[in-house]
Structure formats: structure tokens, C-alpha cells
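Can't paste images in this forum, so I'm doing it all in text. The chain is below; anyone willing to post the predicted C-alpha cells underneath?
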Amino acid sequence: MSKIIQDPINGPIKVEGFVEELIDSPEFQRLRYIKQLGLLNLVFPGANHTRFEHSLGTYYVAGIIGDYFHVEDRNVLLAASILHDIGHPPMSHSLEDIFLKLYGKDHQGVGSSIISGTGEYSGSNIPAILERYSIDPALVGKIVKEGSKEFPLISSIISGSIDADELDYLRRDAFFTGVAIGLVDHMRIINTIRVDEGAFVIEEKGIPAAESLLISRVLMYNSVYFHKTGRIAQNMLGIALSSAGERPVDPFIMNDWDLMEFLRAQEKSSGIIEDILNRRLFKRVKQYNYSSHKLMAINEALETLDSTTFIVDVIPPVSFSGRDRIKSEIRAIRGGRTDQIEKISPLVRALGETLDTRSIIVSARKDSVKEIERALHGTA
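Text version of the structure:
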């Protein structure tokens, strides 16, 4: 028996056997109710797609890559690809840093535990499904969490310089947000990569497609993922979580609406949740060119005010820097020589500068705008 799932990005996707059972598990069905882009549907109304759809797309792309390279442990690859986001908390990446601080957990670690059925996730249905098909849950969990030296190619397909995850989400996010900057020729990339010591190397004829991938990634971050209004909504949600009288016992088993209803039920966070749901978002007050000195001065100017009435945000975040963020560690071949693509491509070298141009955005609740403006007077 098999099932065909119609995907707007990849077309019909065939699932059968253990993959179909995994999809039908409660742990995977939870992903239907976790939006891929969190609160960005407040900016891009079509961005209501979910981790469920993206996981199916990643599975599909991983299968294509696996077939192309004749991956022997195909079931391990397919299991890791379909389950790579199984541990995602509500609102996707919106609250990930706060959850890490409050709970000491991230989605890769939680995903690994759900897949292997260990620790507080010992009641997971996932390991029994995998074991029925002679797939090692611990191995799949390890690949999802940090990769495996014993399975370098599969690890690269799941999370590497060119991976199935990104080849799906860039195309999917561009489609549902309606922007025309995340267009990636994934088949051209797949058809022009080689494997060298377990990692992908792109052939010379595929360099333009790789450049397009990296450029699309940076443009999507600048125009979509780090959209100023989207960041305001995300930070408002962070304020709600931080100011709530109670915290969820474990947000990693909740979906978006579980979390929103939990916070709306708390007296101290209900108001800001209502504001988010009705798109009464904080208004931008000031914007500055970023410097650490300027950020310190702004924080000092506002330190005596109610921190739930304003947001100081750095876009792109200071933590979002370095080659790993651009994924310019992709290796490419030109003239018979293999090197990092940024050393070969002037276009890729310029991308780093794009993400190093930062702004400080100060926004405030509508009734606090004048107070924030007065406090910031003289910090220009």
C-alpha cells in the first residue's frame, strides 16, 4: 500500500511503508499546526504553510539526491529527512532562543530524543515504527541532531553546505510569501554536484546555480525572514512569553495554537497576545545604523522604562554572522582546482557584506511612542 500526497512545490509525493506510518503518528501530525514562518503571515498573508509540508518536501528532495548518489542506507536517509523537524517548538524559529535559555533545549536535541524515545520523550511512537522496519532510532536521532561520521553522505544530505532541507524551504517560503527571490534550480544543483570525502562539491558548470542558491538565501533573509514588521511581531511574542505568570511545562510538545491559548490565558500576557492576533503591532519609533556603542547608549536611555512597552532589535541579529550563515563553505571546482566557492566567485564574496550591514530598530506600543521618543532624544 502507498499514498500520494499532492504538494504545491514538488508535485505528487509518494509515501509508503514506514514513512506513511511516521506521517500518521501523533508526533508528526503536530507539525500540521506549526507554521513554517511563525508570525510572518502577519506580513505575508499567504505564509500559512507548515513544518508538516516542509518535512514532506525535504523527504522528497532527499530521496532524489539519495537516488542520484545511490545511497545504500536509503531507509536511514528517508527516516532522517522526514523527521528532521520533528522536535520543532511552536512558532518555528520565533522563540527558539528564548526556549533554549528557559528550557536548555533546542529542536535538534529534542528531535533526537523523540526519534530515539529517550528521556522525557520515552513515550514517543517513533522508535517502535522505525524498529519494525529494522531502522536504528538512535542512529536516525544522531543524524538529525549532529550528523554521523559513519554516515557522512546522509548527514550532508540532511544538513550540509547543500542540503535537502534548504533546497525545499527556500522554494517553499518564496512561493507562499509571494516573493520572486527564492527561486532555486534545485535539479540543476543536484545534477552538478559530486561527493568528495562525504561532502558535496559543485562542478564548474553548476557554479551559477550555486551562486543563485546563495544569493536567494541572503535575499530571503533580508526581505522575508528578517522583515522589520515580522521581527516586531516575533519580539512581541517573546515579551508575552517572558512576562507570563506561568510557563509551559514543555513547549516542545505544543503546537502554535496550544502556545497562543496558553499565553492568552495568563493575565500578564493576555493583552499582548490579543494585540498580536488582531495585528495591533508595536510602531517603529527610531532606526539607527548599528554599532555596539550606539546599542549600549539606546539601552541605557531606556533602562528605567517598562520593558514590555518597547523593543530594541538589531537586524540582522549580531549572532547571524560568519560563513556558516551564508553557507559559503560550499566547495566548487574551477579549472580543475577545488576551493571554497567564495574564493572562486566574486558574487559570493560580496554576500557577506550584505548581511554585515545592520540596523537598530526601536519600536513601541502605540501609547508609549512619545515616551520612548523623549527617552531617546539625544541618542541620534
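The domain at 282-318+358-380 is CATH 3.30.70.2750 (Alpha-Beta Plaits). The chain has two domains: 2-224, 282-318+358-380.
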